[in-house]
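Example: Peptidase S54 rhomboid domain-containing protein.
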Amino acid sequence: MSFTNAPVTRTLVVGLVGASIAASLFDIKHYFYISIGTHILRYHQLWRVLAYQLCYLNSSEVLFGAMALYNMRTIEQRWGSRKYASFILVTALFTSMVPPLILTAFLRPLSFGVLDFLPAGPTPIIFAILAQYHAMIPHMYKYKVALATGPPTGQDSATLTFSDKSTRYMMAGQLAMSQFPGSLLGAVVGWLVGYAWRNEALPGVLTRWRVPGWVVGMRGQKTNAEFENMRRRLESEGASTGTASGIQQQQAGPTEGNNRRRTMGQQLIDEVRGAF
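Written out as C-alpha cells, the predicted fold is:
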C-alpha cells in the first residue's frame, strides 16, 4: 500500500491535491471551468482548454480523484513509469481538446445553448486510465449482495454481483456523475481515448512516442562501448582464473587429489587413527 515503483502516480496525486488546495486558497477557482458561450465564443479564452484538467473545485471530487489514481497505480507498475507518463501526456492532449470541441460544435447548438458547461478536473484522464485498468487487471474474487432481507430461496433470488474491482468503478462513476452532463461527457471521451490508445487506433507516432528517461527519474543508460569493455574484462578475468586453477590441479600430487575426493566418513576415521 504505497507508491513503490509508481513515481508518476505519486506526482499526479500530489499535484492534483496541491493544485486543488491552491485554487481554493488563492480564490482562483473561476479560472478552471469552461463556459463555452462566455469563455470560448465571447472572450476567446482558449487557454482554459489546457487548464481545466489541472484541479477539482470541491473536496469530494479531490478525494475520489486521488483515490482513483492511487488505486490504479498498478498500470504504471506493469508498464513502467516512462510508458505510463507518455500515455498520460498523449491522453491529456486529446482530452483537453476533444470535449470542448464536441460541446462547441455539436452539443451546444443542438441543445440551443443549454449544454454549455464543462467542469474542472482530470476526470477524462482518469477514465482513460480506467480503460487500461479494465482491460489489463483481472478481478481476484466476486461476491453477491442480496436485495432482500430474507434467506435466499435459490438461484433466482434478487442479488447483485460485484468484484474486488467494483469499488474502483464506483469512485470513477461518482466523478462522471458529479457535475452531469459535462462531467459525463469528459468521462466518455476519456474512456474512448484510452480504448483507442490501447487498440492502436490513434496515430502510431503518438502511441510509440516516449518521454525522455530523465523526466521520470531514469538514470542515463550505459553505452554499448561501456558494456563491451565490461564484458571483455569479465571474460579475461574468468580466463585467467580458469588457467590458474588448471595449473594448480596439475601441480597437486595424487595424494592431495585423493584427499580431496575422500568422503566425510573416511576423514573422520583418519582423524581417530591419528589420535591413537
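The two ends are 66 Å apart (CA to CA).
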